[in-house]
Amino acid sequence: MAQIVPSLLSADILDLKNLLEEFRDFGIEWLHIDIMDGHFVPNLSFGPQFVESIREGDKFLLDVHLMVTPPENFLDLFIKAGADLITVHLESTPHIHRVISYIKISGCKAGIAINPGTPVFLLEDIIKDVDLVLLMSVNPGFGGQEFIENTFKRLKDLRELCKSLGVSPLIEVDGGINGENIEKLLDLGVDMLVIGSAITRSKDRRLRLSELDSIIKKKQEGILELQFHKKVGESYG
Ligand code: DX5
Ligand code: ZN
Fold first, then answer.
1. 3-236 belongs to which homologous superfamily?
2. Which ligand is located closest to the Cα atom of residue 151?
């Protein structure tokens, strides 16, 4: 079943302890931590120390999204800080295969991210080596941006690419996700939904999380029902 992966980018840092407690109580398993360097993207965010503090305080799976160039210079820092999954941008290095291999050898899971303007087919020769593909649905650098509609088509393309190559990495979509677009993303087979401001900037975070979660659950029930009918149909057909 698809999962909500909260992004901490737009969170109120002074309230972080409460926020993480709420996430844990809600059953959230992954946390998305955005790392920006002011070069690859025009913004700065967190560093390895931040990841380390969260690692020490809680038991979430830490999904570290590196928006830095060159990523090679930062891998050891985040591996040591306790990242479970490190995602690097295809656009951030000419040595993507080496970077992905390095992450995996270090014992972390490896993800590859692509910007909204990067063709999905460019993943063809690396996709079999990664655990996760992160499809950016906004231009990276800021929280609270508007979802880019073309992502739906790109998600479809990505699913088709995976099918044609016989691979099944987790598919994560990141940026601008909210109650309006989540359903369509689920229909198109997203696995991990990175959601920042729609949750952390909401007045009632718990309610917002429940609303988003119930959309996922309803979809899942619908899928199971469909599978059941198909099975019954097959046995009698
Ligand atoms: C953008 C980041 C996203 C962002 C998502 O560069 O990669 O993870 O925090 O936040 P929202 O949901 O606010 O777009
Ligand atoms: Zn991100």
1. Aldolase class I (3.20.20.70)
2. 1
